[in-house]
Amino acid sequence: MAIVRTRAILLKSYPFGESSEIAILFTEAIGKIRVSVKGARRMKSAMRAKILPFSISDVVVYVHPKKEVYNIKEAHVLKIFNRARDVKFQKTVSNVLNIIDSYVEEGPEGRKIFELLISFLEVLDGAEKRDDVLKLSFILKFLKLVGHSPVLDRCVRCGTPHGLHYFSPEIGGTLCINCAGIVEDQQVIRINNGIRKTLIFVRDRPLSTVQNLSVNEGMIEKLIREYLEYHLGVTI
Ligand SMILES: [Zn+2]
Question: Which architecture, in CATH terms, is 2-129?
């Protein structure tokens, strides 16, 4: 058994026994873990008050290789986001945490995803009214990090970099005019070069730059939503 101290974010929790909870945490040091929070559902649970939604906690966990649920030694809140009570912020963050929870396996991985999540939360916290574009940017950055980015700089079928006027969520990226006419995917969507360049911009540029981008999110949201549903089975 090892004792590990790490930053952690609450992904979700569910009741366990009469008064306790199991909390699913995404941690910086050991990835996604389950911990039991004894007495969490009692009004005055000290431990529950230290692992809150929409905040970052510092936790010390007893890691036992043969157990699926770990025990917490201690915890405290490092940061509560300013917008933690803002419903729009809560909805955006819940969307993103759901993607992470669906995709990331339990176990010691994901430090880079954790870093991306922290920078996303920090930029989002200071950027009211930019939630939609920041969320889409997070999703594309996340997909790139885990090796699932849609292909955006060439035709996903023949490889040409020219005439990329279509997008196929199912095949996984942009298609040239020739290939769009012969693939059997019913979902091929006509796009213009501006949309394609916007997707590349929000995927590759820092979140702090993306938040200043003036863009109509409707079309890129549609492309990303359909791509995510098809490849990760996640709805946003
Ligand atoms: Zn092609």
Answer: Beta Barrel (2.40)
The Å distance, Cα 194 to ligand 1 centre, comes to 19
* Cβ proximity of 120 and 134 under 8 Å: yes
Start-end of H helices in the chain: 87-103, 111-125, 131-145, 177-182, 193-204, 207-210, 217-232
At 214, list the tokens. Answer: 């003036």
Residues around ion ligand 1, judged by CB within 5 A, are: 155, 157-158, 176, 179
Rounded distance from Cα 4 to ligand 1 centre (Å): 50
Give pLDDT tens digits for 132-142. 999 999 999 99
Domain boundaries, the chain: 2-129
pTM score over 0.90: yes
